Amino acid sequence: MAATAVLFDLDDTLYPYVPCRDAALEAAHETARELGYEFDRDAFDEFYQTGRREVKRELSGTAATHERFIYFKRAVEEHTGEPRAGDALALGEAFWEGYLEEMALFPGAEATLETLQNEGIDVAVTTNLTTRIQLAKIEQLGLEDHIDLLLTSEETGREKPGSVMFTLPLARLNRRVSEAVMVGDNVGADIVGANAVGLETVLWNADPDEPLEGRRKPDHRIDAFGELTELVL
Description:
By secondary structure, the chain is of the alpha/beta class. The chain folds into two domains: about 5-15 and about 105-230, HAD superfamily/HAD-like (Rossmann fold, 3-Layer(aba) Sandwich); about 20-100. About 50% of the residues lie in helices and about 10% in strands. It contains ten helices and six strands; from the N terminus they run βαααααβαβααβαββα. The termini are close together.
């Protein structure tokens, strides 16, 4: 393969998601107790999940379905019967502050991006979620100088696996599908969506037990980030 552009997912592809989520929830729990909510951790997790479930049910397929400020807004309203906008705002800010502080790239990610850049290969990040927080993640990870384009589902109005999440970054980079590669961890969003528009696909950091067949089967599967350069150069 001689790629001229590589599209990357962001969350759990360029950095590990779970440690960031756990740190974020712990930070939000501490803030909740400071605000006077007498939650132990289990009770706080249920409080959070109450808001999350409601948002996922009502806003599925939109960027807003991932927005923690909305989760906390709904959770506070459900728990107290009142808007309490200040509480919801404080909890959302604590969540994202804790999340960002925990972020670190996967081993080999920065070196791989630098290699692609040095070889003249365009790098785009195409990601579900709202633009503001994804911009903050890019800045926190120090990726601004390593990517040519960031596209969020908030900008397009469609979540991956929607085709626009793959075709639009290529159009903006003036690259053809035949010369580009999609790298991601989520089979349903990244691989199925990219396969559908004819992109070559690379699965990384995915559940090793997930069955893969048909449109769900990637062209390549890697076990370490550094293996990517061997595929695309």
